[in-house]
Amino acid sequence: MVAPDAKPVTVPDFQAAKSRGSRLTMVTCYDYATSRLLDATSVDALLVGDSLGMVIQGHPNSLSVTLDDVVYHTRCVARGAARALIVADMPFLTYQINADEALRHAGRLIQEGGAHAVKLEGGRRMAATIERIVAADIPVMGHVGLTPQSIRRLGGFRVQRDEAAIFEDARAVADAGAFAVVLECIPAGLARRITESLPIPTIGIGAGAGCDGQVLVLHDLLGMFDDLQPRFVKRYAELGQTLRAAVQQYCEEVRAGKFPGPEHEFR
Ligand code: KIV
């Protein structure tokens, strides 16, 4: 846990962490109450991921998430966090059409959502877009390897093994000015080599222990989401079971006339 007056995490802190070899931590977050809880831990960054399409909205993938959805959830998260860096995901088709549109949309996540940085998927093809957004002083986190917005082309959520292409993508993102890059579902050896060769921090998910940091979807980490159970997830709690047991007990106590008790009544 951190002191209540801990210093806010900044984009330069990410670079400093890489330089001194301190591992970075990021988890997804989509709402105010959870943001407050997470901000009291030592997690470095909260990612308002477009994974909200799956864990919050119940879709099979992230393709239908809109910019308004992410602005809304980012606003909720921003109200709850005074310390962690808030990174907002750019949804599918909000940055692929052209760089001007991408900049306008990134700007909404900062101005309306209260994000400190944005994340977008893609390597070499997105380099000019990253440059454009960064030139407006909006920090960008890249995302290469398995890019979930490309699942129609990739054929599903699979480990990506085209090592030369992934290496070039990661380098292009760094050269374009991104302050960090997510490496998703790639062989651990490749992730380690990319991490050693890039000047910016790498944040791995399904990319092994050789990255500069790690990210997980919070609902996976807490055992609250069973639709997909990727091998790279470690469940640090079984909050799904705890939630079901608590609500079941509440139902039983209401039905048995045990809740509310006298201590819950106004007199
Ligand atoms: O949307 C998301 O949650 C992500 C992480 C899995 C990196 O992009």
Largest beta sheet: strand ordering: 1-2-3-4-5-6-7-8
Helix and strand run = HEHEHHEHEHEHHEHEEHH
Number of helices: 11
What class, by secondary structure content?
alpha/beta
What is the mean pLDDT? Answer: 97
The overall strand count is 8
The biggest sheet amounts to: 8 strands, parallel, barrel
In whole angstroms, the N-to-C terminal distance is: 39 Å
Give a written overview of the molecule.
With 267 residues, the protein is of the alpha/beta class. The protein folds into 2 domains: 11-236, Phosphoenolpyruvate-binding domains (TIM Barrel), CATH 3.20.20.60; 238-267, no CATH class. It contains 11 helices and 8 strands. It has helices at residues 11-20, 32-39, 52-55, 67-80, 99-111, 127-135, 151-154, 163-175, 188-197, 218-221, 239-255; strands spanning 24-28, 45-48, 85-89, 117-119, 140-145, 180-184, 202-205, 213-216. An 8-stranded parallel barrel has the order 1-2-3-4-5-6-7-8, surrounded by 7 helices. The N and C termini lie far apart (39 Å). The structure holds 3-methyl-2-oxobutanoic acid. Residues 28, 47, 49-51, 89, 182, 205, 215, 217 line the site of 3-methyl-2-oxobutanoic acid.
